[in-house]
Amino acid sequence: MKFISNIFWLFVAVLFIFSGLIKINDPVGTAIKLEEYFEVFSTDIAPFFKSLEPYSLFLSIFLSAAEIVLGVALLVRFKLKAVLWLLLVMIVFFTFLTFYSAYFNKVTDCGCFGDAIKLTPWESFTKDIVLLVMIVVLLFTQQYLQPFLRASSGAIITIITAALSVAVGWYAYEHLPYIDFRAYKVSNNIPTLMKPSEPLRYKYIMTKNGQDEEFEDYPMDTTYTYKAMVAINPEAGPKITDFNVWNDEGDHTQEVLTGKKLLIIVQRVDKTQQENMGDINKLVKAAEAAGITPLVVTSNSAADFEKFRHEVNLAVPYYFGDDTVLKTIIRSSPGLVLLQDGTVKGKWHHNDTPDIEEVKELVSTDEI
């Protein structure tokens, strides 16, 4: 039993640290996922969940940091009993979220490991059940996990971990994620990712005499009843399926993905910061002079964006995009994305607005 207890101790500690680090790497993305849950729960369970939405960012950093801190505290066996009870409370909460998502098919991606590892709701629920069992076992086998550090050393490590976790999360919010796991990361080519990496292959699920059978070719036997068609190699499907840019004149997606473009992403004007718009306007003028076309992509209505652009003197053409897609492209509003023939050459938070020399260095030097 001592061996099992030590295996569970190491597994739970490392997994909580890993999960927290992945989420705190992208606190805005984690906050977006929390907002999804609050929206669903406010409709299905109780309206008060809606009131939690303004605190999504705070909860994102707090919960992610808590995972890391509890994982580290467990790893160094500091205040073991209290840490295990806190982990139990946390995993029960997470298990409820993932079960609700899976059973009612409400939130199709729990965000347990951010964008780094995608799990289906049932996979997430299974993972939480396994962790729940392990933590319960650890609670009953604490005698096999004797502390190997003095209490003061464990306290210092835990406090430093807490401070560093919050600082890391806040810095990622004020800038961009340290590691970008999304399809729009720097160096990716958007048009390529909008196509399958290889031809998709399908199998047909047919029913006969109450039994399901699978076929790679549609059966000619008319006694079979069609049930479903499922991709055999879904991983070969397009990684980007919803990138579109348009205005009242029509679709401009291909135009945006051709040539050198500096995209200013404005997700929602009511949540868009204005303090760095002077730097962005300066960059816009320099980009135009350098042969790089600046344009805005926003999810707002024309009326709302017109009011905003006059307030900040943003004199560039603007187009429309889906709000969820724009949040996926960059975790900043406004945010800057440099494209060359659809390849992402650079991404900047508005707090890190580059100068024109930095932008020019990232695109081809041919006649700009």
TrEMBL record:
Residue span(s) of domain Methylamine utilisation protein MauE: 2-140
Q: Report what the protein is called.
A: DoxX family protein
Query: Which species is this UniProt entry from?
Result: Pontibacter flavimaris
- Please provide an example of a Pfam family that matches this protein in its UniProt record: MauE
Q: Which InterPro entries match?
A: Methylamine_util_MauE, Thioredoxin-like_sf
Which compartments does it reside in? Membrane
Topology in the lipid bilayer = Multi-pass membrane protein
Q: Which GO terms describe its cellular component?
A: membrane
The UniProt keywords, alphabetically, are: Membrane, Transmembrane, Transmembrane helix
Q: Which residue ranges traverse the bilayer?
A: 7-24, 57-76, 83-104, 124-141, 153-173
What is one Gene Ontology biological process annotated in the Swiss-Prot or TrEMBL record? methylamine metabolic process
Superkingdom assignment: Bacteria
Q: Which SUPFAM superfamilies match?
A: Thioredoxin-like (SSF52833)
